[in-house]
Specification:
Elements lengths: L5 E7 L4 E4 L8 H18 L2 E6 L5 E6 L9 H14 L1 H14 L7
Antiparallel strand pairs: 1-2, 1-3, 3-4
Helix pairs in contact: 1-2
């Protein structure tokens, strides 16, 4: 059904916008809210653009990008914040991977 990468959501400090892929509107409202808060707070803290992306195997990645001339972007803070999110939100991220694998990739869970 899907190929390569599928964007779950993202936020941009440059445009001050949050995006949730329409395909994931079936997620519970609480999960959608938590994703929005997580992404927006990340970009407010370190700048740049944060995107949550599924690869073709159903793995979830947090990708960060920044404009080349952005002097306010905190590269070190970004790495630390990503690790903190991966640790503190491990259960949420794991549940999202499971959701994607079942509903998008059609895998059966034992």
């Amino acid at each position: 059904m899907y190929q390569k990468q599928v964007v779950l959501c993202g936020a941009s400090a440059y445009e001050q916008k949050y995006y949730l892929n329409e395909d994931f509107k079936g997620l519970p409202e609480q999960v959608q809210d938590e994703l929005k808060i997580m992404c927006v707070l990340f970009t407010e803290d370190v700048g740049g653009v944060l995107t949550l992306v599924f690869d073709e195997d159903g793995e979830l990645f947090l990708e960060v990008a920044a404009d080349e001339g952005d002097l306010l972007y905190d590269d070190i803070g970004s790495e630390l914040k990503i690790r903190k999110i991966q640790k503190e939100k491990a259960e949420l991220l794991q549940a999202l991977k499971l959701y994607y694998r079942v509903f998008f990739l059609g895998e059966e869970i034992e």
